[in-house]
Amino acid sequence: MIKFVQNAKKRHLLFVLCTLGPVIVLFFYIRIIPIVKTAWYSFTDYSLLKVNPSFVGFHNYAIMFHDTAFKEALSNTLTVTVVCVLITLTLALFFSVILMRVGRASAVYELIYFIPVVTPWVPASVIWRWLFDPSYGLVNQLFSLLHLPPQSWLQSPDHVIIAIIIISIWKTVGYYMVIFNVGLRNIPDIFYEAATIDGANRRKQFRYITLPLLKPIFLFAAIMAVIQFFNVFTVAYVASADNQGSPSYEFKVLVWEIYRNGFNYYKMGYASAQAMVLLAFVLIIVLLQFKVAGNEID
Amino acid sequence: MRRKVLLALLIGAFAGSFAFAAGKQEPAKITVWGCFSELQAPLDKAVEVFKVKYPTVQVETMVFDLRDFEAKVAATAPRGQAADVIIMDHSLVGRYGKAGILSAAPSDVADMVNTKGRYLPIAKEKLTINGKVVGLPVFGGGPALFYNKDYLAKAGIEPPTTVDELYKAAVKLRQMDSAGTLTRAGYSIRLTGPTGGSQKFAFISNQMVGGDIIVEGKTPNTYHGNLDNEATAKALMWHVNLLHGPDKSDDWALKHDTEGFAAGAEAMFLRESWVIPYMKQNAPNINYGVVPVPRDKYFRIYDWLVSACVPETGKNKKLAWEFAKVMQEKEVMEVLFNDSGWIPARRDLDFSDILAKEPRFKVFITNPPEAEVYFEVNASAYTELWTKVGEIIQEAYRDKGLVNNLAGCRAVVKKANDIANQILKESGEYGE
After folding, report:
1. How far off is chain B from A92, nearest CA to CA, in Å?
2. Among A4, A153, B68, B276, which residue's CB has the most CB atoms within a 10 Å radius?
């Protein structure tokens, strides 16, 4: 009997190794090893044009504190992340709660809200770039109908961040709405029935039943949203990058700075240091989220 | 027994397929990357000509926008993964040449570059790195002033020949609506895109300063900033005064550059010869003229050189250089000139038939004899230099407080100069 169990355990282990092994090896090769290499490069003066990089200690990290472009990119990225996470998740929850009441037609609305999610970032950003055009854009046309002055959405340093945030929220709210839909549908009706019997109105049911039971989903969505918005790049690059015919104010974000330092300035060591800072920021925020929300879920 | 025979057959077939694949001769293939989308037509012609001599060789061509092209080459060339032929401008040639990434041209190609009168004299200097020729010139060409003839005729003014006349013409040619919003730029300034922005700023500042924004040091391969002077500050003020205040003649909200000119949203702008086929295709009804860059105390015209280079790690270097030679053929150069609008690097060929059909090209072919032609320096940190200087300049364009404020402009150009020198020191290329 013992031998049978031991053989079964061995076969089980072999099965796990055979099925998960290649995936784990691939994961190490495309994720862990590049991260470790990036960490190493961040302590060197690695340049694309230089064959043998030299160790420079924390020099790359030290100059980051004086790099105004990096500080601007960090500030912009943090602002976009905080604002987009808050608004996107709030809107997503709002839409999903409304759709729960729509009934059968909710599938049609879900499809409509999900279309931006499946649209690739590049064409979506190009379309929005035209929508925000100061002379021909639909947004300013609508503004003129409402007797509001036209805005330089992508040309003004004050307005470009608003445009980027609008595009980012439009593009992602459908995804989180679907996630919240799943969460809402998994809340047993019996809780709501009991609450109704006890005299709780819809607002109280939402506050004392829906929100607490949605916390695991909310934590997942918040973490995904933070990671996603911290990596904002395509919309900033396409919508606000140099287009000689249509001037835009270049909206600096962290990933773009990393790309620029690495592939335009050839300073791979410095770009690696910036990438490690990005990783550290995201890691800290995610761990904080786990700490704050994770305890309550337990 | 049958199982063993079947297994043996399967193993044999499997092993045999490897042997077949190893023994099978793949046709030779070369890849070519071009730095502008308008190079596709001349590349297609070059492939057609190349295939006459090498019918079995496959040629794959790809063209990119300039900044994406630079990033692609940066990511691949040092790793030996770039194309077999890369068509790049002289600043990239300098960077990659000094890093040993480009291969030396064979003797017949080097002789072409060294042949007097075949190319601009500067070609030999720009393409010779550490004593070796590393590229074959393809095209070049600097800017000229494009102006809308109808707008100028209506305003009763002649095309400007000096920087001062350009300023006054810009103010006269602007158009505003009843609310005072600018609807047409008198002169289109490069307001965004810092790398190109600093270059376009320098089109004007060179006329006042007599030198470029970054210049060579006394020691070879060293450079330093040339912005911290009153003339550059005046050039900045010239631009700012056209963007704010009573002489406002341009705005960020308008269409700019060639698109704006084609849309009739601007009266004048400085650009290279590729605009001519663009206008022919997109705005054939715009009645425009071309004159040399307006001068000031000095008369300096920017030029650049784009060449076909072969990476050292290329697998088909011989074929790659053969392709580069094919690009020199007259029929390829004619397509380059006619379709892309860029000025062929060959100075020993006769393009009179193209010039007869489109005389506006003549301004780009022959510079006024009193003009000094200048090229940007071959610094390794070129992109970072021009980008960070351009960011400071374009940020200053937005500052209304700099209108008629020479002291303020002087502080800005000093800051740009300090940043430029800092970058050069970090890259080990600084020298007074």
Report:
1. 34
2. A153
